[in-house]
Q: What sequence folds into this?
């Protein structure tokens, strides 16, 4: 039997390098289109691994990420394994908890387990007959123009593989991106922020969640911040963000407790002093890096997606969501240009770079703002104002986080609109102030108050007060 010609021409080999969240999802996207997909991951298969080490245990999944999962038929399954968070719960220093909803009833984000999500995505990719998974394959070198790659195995052996298209999904320290750096006219910047993060586990108490489960718990303390997301096993993973220099100051168990007593006193009985002391010294604080680059492609043979293209600091909960949206955007352009890589790749760079740079900037901006002056009162106030304006003018004033989290408004458009809205709000405030001033003056001029009347009424008031007292 002969295959139709179109099917034949599709038999191009796509090598996805990196089997993390974005790589595994991308394998599904390319497999669905009928390409011969080869996925290469440096680590062993996490589905068989006993210990899964790596960054952050759980992640906030929102609209953009969900839409991407929907494209490959995985949305329902992943959503069912996530915990909805309808609101933030702000913890004040005095232990008071205040919820602030994310939006209307149906608007919530999900806390998902990173390892579980990764496993589901790998399994989904594997179910396509045209995908091949290669674990224990660490990309050592590649030629982005010819598509030739060299991998090293744990036993030291090397393997060479050639592909029509290399898709670099190998994370923030991408080996594929190294090839871009050697070229002319490649823009690149990376910034390490002074903060590190550390994860602490809050175990269930009497078999139940130690805090209310359907919230993203936040302890905003200016330079220090803690965030907790619920897990399916009824634990919470608390992530402590703090400058490295402060992490280094705390060297004994007693100092840990002292520090928590001062800034997060309500969490000590919930985490438990012993667990706290143990967890704190289990791993050193992890660094956070922001990476921006341009372009995302080389010729018609190599393209970057996910953290490899744009690592963002986690202060908008968008890193994975943006990486997942990369996959949809690429897929849409593949439709537009009939899978012609020589047209698709430049277009992907043209369309996607401004948006990824916008979310990288937003995340960094939010980091700076939170660090500078966000305590629990300020956080509550700002979110209240956002929500109130949105409630009364839902068509005009949409909070920035709403556009970012609950829509697919292009990130750079969301930023533009946010600037415009701020202008409108400021003008509105100024106008109201001027109107009040002018209106007040006008009324006073039009009806000048009779001084005698004012005194008389003051006398009357006095009489009434005296009358009240003698009653
Ligand atoms: P990675 O997940 O890093 O995967 C890269 C893969 O490539 C890995 O499996 C790695 O082993 C493999 N690899 C690396 N080098 C090679 C090589 N040379 N050869 C072969 N394979 C290689 N995002 C959200 O959307 N919501 C959140 O709430 C959120 N919270 C976060 C909290 C923290 C503390 C941090 C640090 C990040 C958070 N993020 C969040 C961001 C999110 O973790 C990343 O954006 C996401 O993991 C990116 O996926 P990726 O597949 O591009 O990269
Ligand atoms: C940080 C670490 C609250 C998971 C940004 C909000 C985050 C997450 C916020 C982490 C914050 C900060 C938003 C979401 C989310 C808020 C958001 C941050 C998930 C502006 C596992 N952030 N995060 N903004 O609005 O849009 O609630 O580690 F504290 S989810 Cl820093 Cl929506």
A:
């Amino acid at each position: 039997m002969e295959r139709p010609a179109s099917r034949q021409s599709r038999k191009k080999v796509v090598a996805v390098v990196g089997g993390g969240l974005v790589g595994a999802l991308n394998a599904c996207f390319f497999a669905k289109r009928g390409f011969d997909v080869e996925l290469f991951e440096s680590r062993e298969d996490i589905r068989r691994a006993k210990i899964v080490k790596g960054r952050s245990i759980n992640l906030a999944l929102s609209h953009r990420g969900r839409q991407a999962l929907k494209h490959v038929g995985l949305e329902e399954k992943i959503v069912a394994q996530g915990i909805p968070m309808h609101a933030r719960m702000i913890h004040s220093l005095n232990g008071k908890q205040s919820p602030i909803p994310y939006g209307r009833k149906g608007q919530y984000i999900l806390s998902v387990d990173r390892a579980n999500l990764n496993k589901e995505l790998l399994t989904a990719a594997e179910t396509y007959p045209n995908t091949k998974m290669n674990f224990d394959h660490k990309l050592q070198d590649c030629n982005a123009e010819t598509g030739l790659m060299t991998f090293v195995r744990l036993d030291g052996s090397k393997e060479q593989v050639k592909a029509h298209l290399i898709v670099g999904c190998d994370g923030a320290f991408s080996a594929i991106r190294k090839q871009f750096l050697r070229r002319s006219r490649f823009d690149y910047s990376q910034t390490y922020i002074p903060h590190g993060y550390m994860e602490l586990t809050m175990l269930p108490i009497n078999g139940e969640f130690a805090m209310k489960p359907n919230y993203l718990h936040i302890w905003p303390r200016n330079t220090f911040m803690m965030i907790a997301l619920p897990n399916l096993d009824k634990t919470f993973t608390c992530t402590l963000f703090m400058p490295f220099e402060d992490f280094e100051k705390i060297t004994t168990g007693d100092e840990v407790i002292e520090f928590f007593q001062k800034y997060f006193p309500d969490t000590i009985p919930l985490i438990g002093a012993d667990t706290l002391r143990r967890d704190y010294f289990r791993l050193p604080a992890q660094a956070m890096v922001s990476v921006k680059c341009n372009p995302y492609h080389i010729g018609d043979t190599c393209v970057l997606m996910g953290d490899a293209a744009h690592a963002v600091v986690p202060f908008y909960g968008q890193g994975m969501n943006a990486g997942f949206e990369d996959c949809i955007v690429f897929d849409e352009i593949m439709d537009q240009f009939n899978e012609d890589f020589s047209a698709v790749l430049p277009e992907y760079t043209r369309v996607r770079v401004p948006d990824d740079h916008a979310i990288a900037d937003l995340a960094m901006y939010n980091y700076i703002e939170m660090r500078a002056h966000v305590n629990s009162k300020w956080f509550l106030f700002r979110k209240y104002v956002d929500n109130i304006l949105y409630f009364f003018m839902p068509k005009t004033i949409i909070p920035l986080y709403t556009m970012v989290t609950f829509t697919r408004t292009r990130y750079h458009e969301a930023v533009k609109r946010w600037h415009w809205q701020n202008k409108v709000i400021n003008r509105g405030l100024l106008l109201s102030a001027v109107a009040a001033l002018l209106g007040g003056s006008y009324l006073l001029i039009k009806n000048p108050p009779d001084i005698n009347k004012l005194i008389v009424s003051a006398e009357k008031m006095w009489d009434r007060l005296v009358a009240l007292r003698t009653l």
Observations:
- Residues 377-446 form one domain.
- The CA atoms of residues 13 and 163 lie 5 Å apart.
